[in-house]
Amino acid sequence: MAALVPIRHLEKLDGDHPIVVVSRGIPYCVTRSRDGTICAFIAVCTHKNRAIVPLRIKRGAIPCPHHGATFDPTTGEVADDRGKSIPTGMPRVAIEAMPDGGLALVTKKSHKKTLPKKERKRVRRELQQDR
Ligand code: FES
């Protein structure tokens, strides 16, 4: 079942500063491309199924804090695997317009399968903004 999770602080979103939204222990990464397109992904690295937390954009890419692979912030695809076996990029998440003019992530219960429970707990602990 899908749930809409509002994306707050959209005014802070630019090419260098992603927004991280946490729901059910899953970190979602919201980015804006140079042409203004807003994209959202589950911030997970499939090398070891670890959350990409802390999350930032460095030299135009999102680095995995665990072993250094990088991801394209506008497509979620692997930009540099650093010699690791990374099966997929960050899974894309749909965005919907809200009646109040804001935007919301379309989150699904199945997103929990992307991260082990231990990692979801770490995300909650580190970001302490779960709803
Ligand atoms: S978990 Fe991301 S590169 Fe290893």
What is the typical, i.e. mean, pLDDT? Answer: 93
CATH architecture: 3-layer Sandwich
**How much helix, percentage-wise, in residues?**
under 10%
CATH class, anyone? Mainly Beta
Secondary-structure element series: EEEEEEEEEEEH
Tally of individual helices: 1
Instruction: Say what the CATH topology is.
Output: Rieske Iron-sulfur Protein
The portion of residues forming beta strands comes to 25-35%
Major pleated sheet: 3 strands, antiparallel
The unreliable regions are none
Radius of gyration: 14 Å
Whole-number total of structural domains: 1
Q: Using DSSP, what is the number of strands?
A: 11
Q: Outline, from the CA principal axes?
A: globular
Q: For the largest beta sheet, what order do the strands appear in spatially?
A: 1-11-10
User: Looking at this structure, what is the CATH superfamily?
Assistant: Rieske [2Fe-2S] iron-sulphur domain
How far is it from the N-terminal to the C-terminal residue, by CA?
Answer: 16 Å
**Given the helix and strand composition, which structural class is it?**
mainly beta
